[in-house]
Amino acid sequence: MRQMKKLEEQVAAWPHVSVHPHRFGGREFRLGNGELGHVHLGGTVDIPLTRAVRDALLADGLAEEHRWVPNSGWTTFDVRGEGDLEHALWLMRLSYLRYALKTASDPSGMLERESEELGLSPHLRSLLQQHLPSKPERVIADPLTA
Questions:
Q1: How far apart are CA 41 and CA 14, in angstroms?
Q2: Residues 6+ positions from 87 with CB-CB distance below 8 Å
Q3: Strands of 64-65's sheet, edge to edge?
Q4: 103: confidence class by pLDDT, cuts 50, 70, 90
Q5: What CATH number matches the domain at 2-129, 3.30.870, 3.90.320, 3.10.100, 3.90.1150?
Q6: What are the φ/ψ torsions at residue 132 (nearest 5 degrees)?
Q7: 3-class SS of residue 75
Q8: Is the pLDDT of residue 127 over 60?
Q9: Radius of gyration over alpha carbons of the chain, in Å?
Q10: pLDDT for 44-59, tens place per residue?
Q11: Closest among 56, 53, 75 to 65, alpha carbons compared
């Protein structure tokens, strides 16, 4: 599926992202030790988020419950065409942002920039603000621009 290859190429190009085989088939994306999500060969994208973010996405019809762990923070989205690819990338970027905020030199500024670029609702933005560290874990060059 052409869209899944594009998704893999674009996510893999984000700073500090590594790509690995996924244990149930497909490809898995990580930022450090955190899994951003994974794709299955048939076009399904599974993305871990916090339960609150996941609930907001479900309420707005922006993702579906994960079929195997529906009562968790995992979401599922099926890529069937080009428009779906853009939305899958948007969902992956939410997951990426959650991890990237932990090591950013300016996490508040990063959240501000990414919120605007992603067109986040005030509610989603407030949910992601909870990931702003009081002090960055190990500051690396801004993970979104390195």
A1: 21
A2: 62, 77
A3: 17-21, 27-31, 34-39, 44-48, 74-78, 64-65
A4: confident
A5: 3.90.1150
A6: -70, 125
A7: strand
A8: yes
A9: 14
A10: 999 999 999 999 999 9
A11: 75
Statement: residue 2 has pLDDT above 90: no
Those residues whose C-beta lies under 8 Å from the C-beta of residue 118, and which sit 6 or more positions away, are 90, 93, 94, 97
What pLDDT score does 18 carry? 95
* Whole-model pTM over 0.85: yes
Tokens of 30: 């990580």
DSSP string computed for 5-66: HHHHHHHHTSTTEEEEE-TTSSEEEEETTEEEEEE-TTSEEEEE--HHHHHHHHHTTSSEE-
5: burial class by Cβ within 10 Å (0-12, 13-18, 19+)? exposed
Dist CA 12 CA 139 (whole Å): 21
Q: Is 47 exposed, middle or buried (0-12, 13-18, 19+ CB in 10 A)?
A: buried
